[in-house]
Amino acid sequence: MNKSYQVKAKKHLGQHFLKDETIAQKIADTLSFQDYKKVLEIGPGMGVLTKYLLKKDIKTYVIEIDSESVAYLKSHYLNLADSIIEKDILKYNLNEIFDDEPFAIIGNFPYNISSQILFKTLEYREQIPEFSGMFQKEVAQRVCSAEGNKVYGILSVLVQAFYNAEYLFTVPPSVFNPPPKVDSGVLRLTRKENFNLPCDESLFFKVVKTAFQQRRKTLRNSLKTFNLSDKLKANTIFGQRPEQLSVQAFIELTQLLQNDTISQ
Fold first, then answer.
1. Fewest CB within 10 angstroms: 109, 153, 195, 242, which?
2. What CATH superfamily classification does 201-263 receive?
3. Residue 5 clears pLDDT 60, i.e. is over it
4. All residues at 6 or more sequence positions from 170 whose CB lies less than 8 Å from its CB, including other chains
């Protein structure tokens, strides 16, 4: 791998490039490659993970914002040339490539936008049955954590409402160039068989985000902006704090708010 390209690219993105081939292959192998024919790698950099995806029986696309990395990929992976998207993943309409087709997402994600990548995935959840990749360890743990855990939060609830989340393995700083100051963690998301919620999904997102904005307060206080009726406020669920509620409890909470609005 060309280190001069790495130095130029990291100046643009602050990204840490994976240099361990064994771990790259291990990440590529986390996807099942079933029930979809295309995969999108986000932030391929110099292609250390890409080379293993290209060996799979699937059409691989990569999306990369850094022009130096794009130039490297085009010159070193000729069979990838027509599948490189030089765009910002957070601003790009993925259906320009995938239409309404299913596809998987994978990557060694830049730490500074990893949470936003997850929110983007949720926007396209009807098309994304599988997702795996590397995050800062604490972010990966947060996504996969259960209620009652101090790191349980917005990402935990929203992701787990639609996907089964698994923390797969930890990756040390030494396998990156330059090495980060923290460990990384690889997770896998597998979409639930029934991923349509039995409640207003836009309200569900709003309830979860509002509740965790004041996570130390009880729901009776953190959800004041929803103009709760006195009858609803008397429900015992509103005496709990958000980190105490399971995903299912948040769904039931949303249903209560829906019904309360209708009855007012």
1. 195
2. rRNA adenine dimethylase, C-terminal domain (1.10.8.100)
3. no
4. 137, 183, 184, 185, 186
**pLDDT one-digit tens code per residue, 102-132:** 999 999 998 899 999 999 999 999 999 999 9
Tens of pLDDT, residue by residue over 67-81, are 999 999 999 999 898
Neighbours of 91 (CB within 10 A): 8
Binning the chain into helix, strand and coil, the percentages to the nearest 5 are 45, 15, 35
Whether 97 and 61 have beta carbons less than 8 Å apart is answered as yes
Tell me, what's the pLDDT at 220? 94
Distance CA 259, CA 264 (A): 9
- Per the CB < 8 A criterion, the answer to whether 183 and 172 are in contact is yes
Amino acid type, 247: V
CA distance 157 to 202: 14
Question: What pLDDT, on the 0 to 100 scale, is given for residue 264?
Answer: 53
pLDDT at 9: 39
Domain definitions of the chain by residue range: 3-191, 201-263
* CATH 3.40.50.2000 at 3-191, yes or no: no
Q: Where are the beta strands (DSSP E) in the chain?
A: 17-18, 38-42, 59-63, 84-85, 104-108, 130-136, 163-171, 176-177, 184-191
The C-alpha atoms of residue 257 and residue 263 are separated, in whole angstroms, by 10
